[in-house]
Amino acid sequence: MLCKNENNDPAHCLKEGRKVTRCAIDLLRKVREHCDSEFEAHWQCLDRNNQEYRHCRGLERKFNSCVFNALNLEKVIPGSPSNKPPIHLKEKPLYKERPRW
Questions:
Q1: 37-73 pLDDT, tens per residue?
Q2: 53, CA 20 to 30 Å: which among 39, 47, 62, 97?
């Protein structure tokens, strides 16, 4: 997006576009290599349940865990305070309002 904002010429962004495409292909290849069964189970659950995540959260957690461990990734939420544990790592997060799910 930044490239397109800098220049309206599409040829100007081809190099960056190729880099993004290679990065995405590499990521998908690594996911298939390390977490193929978890990936298959998760997308099949979504396919069976009309793309509704609420029915597939357990499989999503397994898939996310596999990807984060296999690729040595760490979830960082931009703008979150550095001196407090992130909300996704809290055992019992407190909500200002009760969730409606």
A1: 999 999 999 999 999 989 999 999 999 999 999 999 8
A2: 97
Handedness of CA 22, 26, 29, 35 (dihedral sign): negative
- Enter the tokens of residue 77: 């939420």
pLDDT classification of 96: cutoffs 50, 70, 90: low
pTM beyond 0.85, yes or no:
no
The three-point CA angle 22-23-27 to 5° equals 115
Cα distances from 67 to residues 5, 37, 77, 83, 100, in angstroms, run 33, 12, 17, 26, 29
Q: Quick one: tokens of 41?
A: 């189970």
Distance CA 96, CA 101 (A): 15
What's the residue count for the chain?
101
